[in-house]
Amino acid sequence: MLLLFAAVTLAAWSLILASRSGFTSAYTPHPALPPAPRIVDPGFSGVDPLIWSPALDIKAGGDFYLPVIISNQPRFHSAPHRAHVRRKFSPLWYCGAVLGMISRTTMATSVVIENARYLRNSGGIHVGHWVNAVTQFIPHLHQLATETQGHDTFRSPRYATVELYLEDGVRSAKQLRAIDALLLTNRYVRFTLEAAERAFGANLTITASSSSSVAAVRVNARRWPTNDRWWKSGGLQFTNAALQVSGCNPHNAGQNAGVSDVLIYNRKGSRRIENFPAVTQFLQANGMTTTVVTVTSDLTPEQQICVISKPYKFIVTPHGGQMASLLFKHPTAAVVVVSPPKGVLETFRFFRPAGEPWFAVQEARMWRCRGFCVDTARRDAENIGATLLPPDCEHCERKLRYGTIKVNLRAVKKIVLEARGTKRLRN
Predict the structure, then answer these.
(1) What does the pLDDT look like over 18-51, one tens digit per residue?
(2) Which domain holds residue 192?
(3) Alpha helices by DSSP H, 89-172
(4) Does residue 284 share a domain with residue 224?
(5) 75 & 141 share domain
């Protein structure tokens, strides 16, 4: 609103000035006039028209040059034979100049995160839902970065600030402010914002107030990605920037020395893999070295990413928010998601490209996922035989989120067979 008020005020004054007198510029001629220099506006994006202020004179070699716009390219003409230059500009020209000066300043764009209540859980911020929102607005940041100079980083201050607004139809302003405060202090949130700033050059800010901007991009904290198009529109740049921020290099042989064949990426609380010692023992007995990491609040985002980004053969994990870190996994590592016996829980499949190996485990069953694991199980129900939840049954899904999970060792045998590419198994 303040920017709009300033624009209207400046336009009004410009019209007043235009109705009175023209523009006068005086200079002292130089005896040896150099060729007029080509001066390029450093903030010119190549997209918007370049409009110069009528009060702008550029001094070079002792002479003043008047900028003239031809086909959006600044050209300069000198007038050494005249002591004064006097030109009149139409009111329309002044309005364009005012709008041009406004457009040259830092311009903020906004992203509205709908259903912001899903960003919060009993432990504070639900990292999975937060990263889900991030995957939705990354293509927007990538587009802004690309449009400024045709590169994947910001070269112009035009989009230096991107405001993230929280919105929720069933939460009060006070509750949104509480979520906002949690986001601002959450280490994982701060880490992802820093990675986005490094990848796309945008300064990201979060506020609990809803945006009224017509240019706002809207994302949904409740809706999960259903394809990997976002990955092709900035996802790779974002994950590479995150690895740089964390100080991890998945291609560094020194950092990857002695990496295990299998990572059991466990969680605390509900849906944790309860019998991970037995799973570890079975894998090691069959020649597969295994590392167990339980994600707790003691692990920093940088530590989590450094762990998950190593080139394991398999990452075995239960369904849960800790799976958000799979965004940064090594592209060759196969993911094995363990679901409860009474239903398959799934939301994180397209945090990674569709072509990367992804498996589902439920009791003794294990199958390769072609797209969503639930869809694969429905298409091949006769061979897979998975127990699935009724469609659109949120109550059924919530019930599955409690309790722990025991991994059936017959499913672990299939992991070993998949790794070996053979049916022979040492018992």
Answers:
(1) 444 433 333 333 344 334 333 333 333 333 333 3
(2) 108-245
(3) 91-104, 127-149
(4) no
(5) no
